[in-house]
Design a protein that fits this description.
Elements (H helix, E strand, L loop, with lengths): L8 H11 L3 H22 L4 H18 L9 H19 L24 H9 L3 H12 L4 H8 L3 H24 L1
């Protein structure tokens, strides 16, 4: 198979070796993508390192099983990321960590982002969101998916995806407000 236009020759050789069941090539592929893919799974799973590691391992099993179906219409990394996201969402569903929005538990004052907001504080606040909010927020705001794609991945309506994102942002504002003003 010829390499996709945006696939490097090195990655094409690695892909070919993996398709030929070369275990060293499979390990190199895993090493190349594991850190970024772990981070993606970790965000979706609320900083639960054990669940993220399990999801990552399961995703790479899927990657190697499905590698022959990779049509090179996107980069290999984007294709792997799709599998990791789906596996992380399946793990989330299996763990039954979806939480329904409860307006009484989450007051919604309007607040501005604090000038001293750090990435660490934002990451912590995101990880504390209810699983449904966190999943939608991470998929749309961090990973760059569209509401239509998120709705399909999660088996929800596009309107529900938009609602979950809206409430996730409002709850993030509340969490960050309390962090910086208490």
């Amino acid at each position: 198979m010829p390499p996709a236009p945006d696939t490097s020759a090195e990655e094409h050789l690695l892909l070919t070796a993996c398709l030929n069941q070369d275990r060293q090539a499979q390990y190199r592929l895993y090493q190349r993508y594991k850190t970024a893919m772990f981070s993606c799974a970790l965000r979706i799973l609320g900083n639960d390192h054990d669940l993220a590691q399990d999801a990552l391992q399961d995703a790479f099993v899927d990657v190697f099983r499905q590698l022959a179906s990779f049509r090179q219409q996107s980069t290999l990394g984007a294709w792997i990321k799709t599998i990791v996201v789906r596996r992380a969402l399946a793990t989330l569903r299996r763990e039954q960590r979806m939480e329904v929005y409860d307006q009484e538990r989450h007051p919604e004052p309007l607040v501005a982002w604090h000038d001293n907001l750090t990435g660490e504080a934002l990451e912590k606040a995101i990880s504390e969101l209810p699983a449904g909010y966190r999943s939608v927020f991470c998929l749309i705001e961090v990973e760059g998916y569209l509401h239509r794609e998120v709705a399909e991945m999660l088996g929800i309506s596009e309107g529900t995806s938009k609602s979950q994102l809206f409430h996730a942002k409002k709850l993030l504002q509340v969490k960050l407000y309390h962090l910086y003003h208490l």
